[in-house]
Write a structure and sequence with these properties.
Lipocalin
């Protein structure tokens, strides 16, 4: 596991622009023995027809995108790390009505000064990490496929769209998580937003 907090390192002096509650949540490094678990409800989970197609086609690399839609969807998020592997693993489990639990796993990590989030099959995206209005923002800059030690950039039109994730503190131990994906040709492909709290707190 990396010896430093990747998100804090990437923000640098801008770390202090985050809301203190956001700082507290991201100033920890979870382990397999001591994971961080959040529970909440995704108020809205939407995908367009194009988004559904992207979700269907990416099943082969481990379901990085949800093909399901719904409102008030219970969700659990588990953060952990793995011995001798860099980064923090995010395991998101959706509980859609009348569906088997749908799980998405990714890892956020740094490689030679570049922040990235990776899913299965060597696919991932480079990220900008920003502090805006006390919120933590992740914005994708390029999707890629990792081949051995090389990151092969993918054409923008082959991606599900530019990704923007926002972590906004709401007070009282709660925060809002919002993710949007906007494709330059196909418009908004995915939109999800919900409210969460740390389990057992």
């Amino acid at each position: 596991m990396q010896k430093h907090n990747t998100i804090k390192w990437h923000l640098g002096h801008n770390w202090h622009q985050l809301h203190p509650n956001v700082q507290r949540r991201f100033n920890r490094l979870p382990t397999e023995q001591n994971p961080i678990i959040y529970q909440g409800t995704m108020e809205t989970v939407q995908c367009s027809k194009a988004g559904w197609l992207f979700a269907f086609l990416t099943k082969i690399i481990g379901n990085p995108l949800s093909p399901h839609q719904g409102t008030d969807v219970p969700m659990e998020v588990k953060l952990t790390s793995r011995e001798n592997q860099a980064g923090v693993y995010w395991q998101r489990t959706y509980h859609f009505l009348n569906q088997a639990p749908f799980q998405v796993t990714s890892v956020k990590k740094d490689d030679h000064g570049r922040m990235m989030e990776m899913v299965g099959g060597g696919f991932g995206m480079f990220l900008d990490v920003l502090a805006e209005n006390g919120e933590l923002h992740f914005k994708s800059t390029r999707y890629f496929w990792k081949f051995i030690h090389w990151y092969v950039p993918l054409p923008h039109w082959l991606s599900p769209g530019k990704t923007h994730v926002i972590h906004q503190d709401l007070g009282a131990g709660e925060f809002r998580f919002t993710i949007t994906m906007n494709h330059s040709l196909l418009g908004q492909t995915f939109y999800q937003t919900g409210v969460f709290h740390e389990a057992n707190k």
